[in-house]
Specification:
The chain is mainly alpha-helical and about 70 residues long. The chain has three helices and no strands.
Length: about 70
């Protein structure tokens, strides 16, 4: 199966979505208050990309945190 994957072949028959796990991805909750102009801008960008406001915030924060972690 690994060779099929490495060769770019379809291996979806070997996957079981009900058993899928995302290591180190447990969820926590945090509340953040944003100015209205920022919410409007976030919603516009999320709409343009076809994602939710929460998704765009998560992705942008993750990108920024990754940048910070990679600084010398």
């Amino acid at each position: 199966m690994i060779k099929k994957f490495d060769d770019g072949e379809d291996v979806s028959e070997a996957l079981s979505p009900s058993r899928a796990r995302r290591p180190n991805q447990s969820q926590g909750r945090g509340n953040v208050d944003f100015p209205v102009w920022m919410i409007v801008s976030l919603d516009e960008e999320a709409s343009r990309l076809g994602v939710t406001r929460q998704s765009i915030i998560e992705v942008w924060l993750a990108e920024r945190l990754e940048q910070c972690a990679n600084r010398p």
